Amino acid sequence: MALLFASTADDPELWRRELGRRLPGLEIRVHPEIGDPADIDLALVWLPPPGLLASLPNLKAILSLGAGVDAMLDDPTLPADLPLCRLVDPSLTATMSEYVLLHVLKYHRMQDLFARDQRERRWQLRLPAPASSTRVGILGLGVLGTDAARVLAGHGFSLRGWSRSQKQLDGVACFAGPAQLPAFLAQTDILVCLLPLTAETTGILDRDLFARLPKGARLVHVGRGAQLVEEDLLDALDRGQLGGATVDVFVQEPLPPEHPFWAHPAIDITPHAASYSDPAVGADVIAENIRRFFDGRPLQHVVDRARGY
Ligand SMILES: NC(=O)c1ccc[n+]([C@@H]2O[C@H](COP(=O)([O-])OP(=O)(O)OC[C@H]3O[C@@H](n4cnc5c(N)ncnc54)[C@H](OP(=O)(O)O)[C@@H]3O)[C@@H](O)[C@H]2O)c1
After folding, report:
1. Active-site position among 16, 160, 221, 224
2. Ramachandran quadrant class, 35 (left: phi over 0; alpha: psi -120 to 50; beta: rest)
3. Mean of the pLDDT values across residues 144-149?
4. Residue whose CA is closest, atom 38 of ligand 1?
5. Which candidate, 13, 109, 166, 296, has a CA 20 to 30 Å from the CA of 5?
6. Residue 272 catalytic?
7. pTM exceeds 0.70 for this model
8. Are residues 84 and 103 in the same domain?
């Protein structure tokens, strides 16, 4: 009975220490030192090498170290019948809301324009309207989108959100489904994308969608790279349809040095760094699922594979 840890982004020793505190008897093997693959019951992974999970004959459940599991679902060798749980972790949620707030405030307070003025040595007073007149629209009202809305509401922004099923959230005008997307976009000055990557959301941030936003709207994209049609973003910025974009996720990561986003004056880039899980917090959630697994209780945050998130 052992847990396999395999991640391209997380420190195995930190996770081993935090999980060991909560589950002292748990044997953790860190990829590639797997030992006998038949010993592995559980896998705790982020972007595992394709085929790794399929090579574990006694694997019974997969726990993701990330909130989005699109890359794993994309692996044709992913064992089809095993529960796959995504990470829902207060530290990941809090850091995402912090990132969204930072960049929404940047646009609301026109810090992007002040930065341009500074580069051009131009002294220009710009006074923002009250936050209540800046309309922020959040694509995706799940764990992350709902918390981002809560944090933004605390700063007085005017909020709307869009999801697949209809929601009711205090202080948020809620829109649902493709039919209500145009109305949602028409009232959005700053668009935040917090959607999972699925067949329906691939390429959703495209020319048509940008055209439905008020002219000069800003984008904060923290979902997944393949949701954004990158050349459509460049075109919308160059035509002034969009006034600026903050992009954390890309079709190709790491973003290649020759990519036009790097040098674009209206694009701010971060290297898929919007949010992260603190093992000291995330280990509580993971340990709870491991206990549930060993006790035969239902696991938490199981991905609906048919839905894709
Ligand atoms: N950049 C980063 O560092 C980073 C970090 C973590 C996560 N992320 C991204 O953020 C995503 C969201 O995470 P989460 O934990 O908030 O996920 P979640 O709780 O599963 O919420 C997803 C939301 O998106 C909505 N949605 C899904 N497909 C839709 C569609 N076709 N049309 C309209 N709405 C749709 C869902 O609607 P329903 O509520 O109706 O189901 C739900 O409100 C992740 O999947 C990942 O891609 C990025």
Report:
1. 224
2. left
3. 98
4. 164
5. 296
6. yes
7. yes
8. no
